[in-house]
Every structure is written in structure tokens, then in C-alpha cells.
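Q: For a teaching session next week I want to show students how multiple molecules come together into a single three-dimensional assembly. I've collected the sequence lines for a complex. Could you give me the predicted C-alpha cells for the whole thing so I can convert them for display?
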Amino acid sequence: MRFGVKYCGGCNPRYQRGEFLKMISRHFQNRVDFELAKEDTLYDGLLVLGGCSNCCPDYRHFQTKTPPILVWDQDHFNQVTSQIESRLAKAREK
Amino acid sequence: MALMTKEQYIESLRALKTQVYMFGEKVENWVDDPIIRPSINCMAMTYELAQQPEYEDLMTATSSLTGKKINRFAHLHQSTDDLRKKVKMQRLLGQKTASCFQRCVGMDAFNAVFSTTYEIDEKYGTHYHENFKKYAEYIQEKDFVVDGAMTDPKGDRGLAPHLQKDPDLFVRIVERREDGIVVCGAKAHQTGSINSHEHLIMPTISMTEADKDYAVSFAVPSDAEGVFMIYGRQSCDTRKLEKGTGIDVGNKQFGGQEALVVFDHVFVPNDRIFMCGEWDFSGMLVERFAGYHRQSYGGCKVGVGDVLIGAAAVAADYNGAAKASHIKDKLIEMTHLNETLYCCGIACSAEGYATKAGNYQIDLLLANVCKQNITRFPYEIVRLAEDIAGGLMVTMPSEADFTSDVKVPTKSEMTIGEYCRKYFKGNGDVPVENRQRIMRFIENLCLGAAAVGYRTESMHGAGSPQAQRIMIARQGNLAHKKELAKALAGIQE
Ligand SMILES: Cc1cc2nc3c(=O)[nH]c(=O)nc-3n(C[C@H](O)[C@H](O)[C@H](O)COP(=O)(O)OP(=O)(O)OC[C@H]3O[C@@H](n4cnc5c(N)ncnc54)[C@H](O)[C@@H]3O)c2cc1C
Ligand code: SF4
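A: Of course. Below is the structure for the complete assembly, covering every listed component.
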């Protein structure tokens, strides 16, 4: 699976967004590729890393087959991993 | 080249033949001058962050003119979302530099001139808006810095431009030619002017017909013939020339910059003129620029405030006082004041509206309230920071003393450095040098070079406090408030 990643602009992040992405990438090593989202690419999923609950980055112009996953707190880790796990499972079923 | 790198920006300054004077002399290599360089580093940060994925959502935008990705500082705001992102970008840059990063005035001038020229053309059938659109495209494509130049020296504040003894105390047209105009005068307090590629000039006050030669807006390159700048010195500036590692400078890497920009018979070609005698629009341009700039402070000063709050908390740790309840409470108060300023910046953005030209303008009343608070809260934040830091931030010996191996003829036979390190130790685990660094950093922001940007610019930048009170009175709709009271009190007149 290939995920695009979009960061917010980071004016007042309440957690380390880069570290969060590293943790997620490590968790899905060899199963999901995460890369900075590009406009001309169709992704299996989009991970939007907001720094706070405002989660304000503009991501509407990116193309994704599944709804974007929005993060604004490091406590979202388990939620995010289980969301991506279930998408992986669904993809395997197909 | 829609986005320059930090290195390309610095090289692009070297390519200019900007005339700079400081301490009574011409500065040939001003890019590498130790007094000026921190302000260039600061501006360079606006380029550096635009290249980083973690910040580009705030630092860049899609041009409404070309559809290309551009630096947000050259953007014409297309929505209230853009206005909010502008404030967030400014907060971010304040956090990364703890200084005035200087690029906001140009962005604010850009948006104000864009919408005002549209309305001048609508009334007079002139072509200023087309001129400006071409100019804006050029700036966006080159990713240039523009100095937004409004404030004239103004001479006798009680007299209109045309009544001044010296007619050059406001920028004015001295000659009208087929191919353009010739201007004379100066702009004072120009933030980042030396570090800019271009200057966008606007009138400084609302004018009458008698002042029509002063109702002029145009753009010239920094190195246009007849343009030169005299650097404005800052408190503690020559510390940057001292030997050592720069601890005493406080913030060695970054700083702000202001200068007097003089225009001595400068020729401006027709396609770079955006107002030329339409005195009845000078008020609109001033009001719009000031409105944007009053919004700006709800971002940039908040970012610097974030760093000062952090520095005060570090000082409390190093002093061993962090657990005291009044210290915690003071840090809360600083945060409350700082976030209140941010609320104002966000609020006037969220309540913005589209101008006739299509770009977005902030809510004027809320932007003026924002700036009025800015004239006060940073002073209170500084007061609390000084309270928490303790007197050492202004009484500590120099870095040279802390490293001195000069022996003092005493029984202990210790060096000056050893005495300093012994008596200025705070919390047991913290190296003395760290304590030195944080004290000097706080000094820099509260009353050193960075106080120019954090304090006095908060007071006067974008207009002195009274200017906002006049706008608040005008926008406050007192008549409506009286009607509300009368209706509820059962008064019928
Ligand atoms: C650090 C800094 C950066 C700045 N950067 C820029 C910039 O990049 N671009 C730019 O264009 N400008 C810039 N400014 C200028 C700023 O907008 C002016 O400082 C501001 O408008 C006040 O003008 P002044 O400094 O001439 O003060 P003055 O106008 O002399 O004001 C001093 C006092 O006199 C009062 N006063 C003045 N005139 C009158 C009057 N007619 N009637 C009654 N009271 C009066 C004022 O309210 C104030 O209390 C900057 C200023 C500072 C301090
Ligand atoms: S999501 Fe939060 S931290 Fe990130 S840019 Fe938006 S407001 Fe700032």
C-alpha cells in the first residue's frame, strides 16, 4: 500500500509530527510506504498530520482511494494504526 | 524561479548594488557585515521554511495570478482561510527567529495596493491595477522581498505635507514626464529595507487636493539610481562586533532591521506607478495597509512571545524557582496574554471579506483591536519575564569575564572566570554557561536589539496607539449600541 503524507504548517504543534510519522512508518515497515504527498499521484490512503485540533492543512487537492486519515494528537497512534490495519486486511480480502 | 532557496536569496542580495550607510560610512559588503547579517539570516528563514514539508502548508500558496506555487509572502489572499494561514505563518516565523523577520510589510502593502488600484481605475479609468498585477507576477516569479514603505519622516506632525517648511519630508512627485515621474523624499523606519529587492511606496496619511503631489504609490528596485539607505542602530548592536562566542549578543543568529530610505530624484517608469495624484484614494490605501499590518502583529509578536515565555520558564528552572506557585502563575498569565493576541489575529482574519478586486481584506475593527492590544501586552509579557528571570539578566559580567584566566591576587588564587562561574551558578545541575545564555537571551528580547521589534515596534509599528483608537471609534458603531440600550431600557424618543 502507498500512503501520501501531508503535514500542516506547524505554527503551534502539540507533538512532534515528524516523530509520529517515523513511528507509524516503523509500525508498517515493508507493508505500507509513506511518502510526502504529490498532487499527480493517486494514493491508497492519505495521512494528514495536523499539529493541533485545528488540523488546518489543505489536502483537498490530493488524490486518494480511501478517505484521508486526520491526526492532531500523538494519542491517535493506536486509532491510526488500527484504521490502516483494517484497510490492509480489506485489501488482502480482495 | 517560483521559490528561491535560502542560499539563492542571499546570493541575490549580493547581485544588487544597494547603497548602504552605517556609522557615518558607506558599507560595501553589507551582506556579510556582522551587524547587518543576523537580519539577513532572519529574512532567509522565510525562504528556508518554504522548502520544508513540515512548514510548506503555511509558507507557500498557489498564486491567484499564475496558478504556480509561490511563497505566501508574495500571495494575494484569496479567502479567510488564507488570512488565517498568514497569521499562523507569522507566528511560526516568530517562533523560529525570536525577531522581526521583516517580510510582512511587503505582503501587506501588496494586498492593499492590489485592491486600492482596482478601485482607483474604476473611478478614473486609469491603468494602475494592470500595472500592479504585472508587478505582482514579477515579484512572485522572482520570489523577491518587497519593502512596504509607508511612513514618511513627517516633519512637523501638526502640518499637512504641502505646508511643511521642507517639501521633501513626505515623498512627492517633483517632475511629471511622458515616460514616468521623478520623486524626492524619504521613508523612515523601513523594516528589512536593505534586505529587500524592491520597495513599494505608499502615501502615509489621508490627503486633500492640496497634497496631490504627495498622493503617490510606485515601486523601485533597491538599487535604483538615487536610492540609498542609512541603517538604524539598535540597542547593544556593537556587541555583535565583540570577540567570543556571542553569548552576550543573546540571539546571535537572528535580528531585525530598520533603515531610512532616501529617494533623491528617483525616476519611476509609467508601468511601475500605482497612484499618481489621486489624493482621494490615499486614505483607502493607508487604511487597508494599516489594517493588514495590524492583523500581522497578531501572528509575529505571538511567535516571539512563545519564545520569551519558554525562555522565562527555562530561567525559572535554572534559578531553582520553577516550582514556586507565583512563578507558575506568571507563566500562565504570559501565555494568556499571548494567546489573547493570537485570538485577535485569528478573529480579524476569520471575519475578513472579499474586496472588489477579489483579494481578501481583514475585518478592520477587529484588526485595530488586535493592534491596540499589541501596544500593551508584549510590555506586560516582558515585565513578567524580567520578574521571573531576576536581576542577573542586566547585571551579569561579560562573556570575556566568564572565560578569563586572569588571576586575582587573593588567598584563593582563583581566576576571574572561576569567580564568575562560582558565584553565578544557579540550580546545581545546570552549567553556568546555560544560565548565562538564557539571561542574555531574555535581555536581548526585553531591552536589547530584539526589543526594537518586540517592544517599540509593538507600540508604533502599523501606527501608534491613538491611530487605532480613532479607527475603533469610527468602526465601533456607538449609535447602534445606544439604540440597544434605549430599546431595553424602554426609552422612546
Ligand atoms: C520598529 C519599527 C518598524 C517599523 N517598520 C515600518 C515599515 O516597515 N514600514 C513603514 O512604512 N513604517 C514602519 N514603521 C513606522 C511606524 O508606522 C511609525 O513609527 C508610526 O506610524 C508612528 O510614526 P512616528 O514613529 O513618526 O511617530 P510620531 O508620528 O511622531 O508619533 C509620536 C506620538 O505623537 C502622536 N502624534 C503624531 N502625530 C500627531 C498628530 N498630528 N496629532 C496628534 N498626535 C500626533 C502619536 O499618536 C504618538 O503618540 C516602523 C516603526 C517602528 C518603530
Ligand atoms: S494544525 Fe494546528 S499546529 Fe498545524 S498549522 Fe494548523 S493551527 Fe498550526
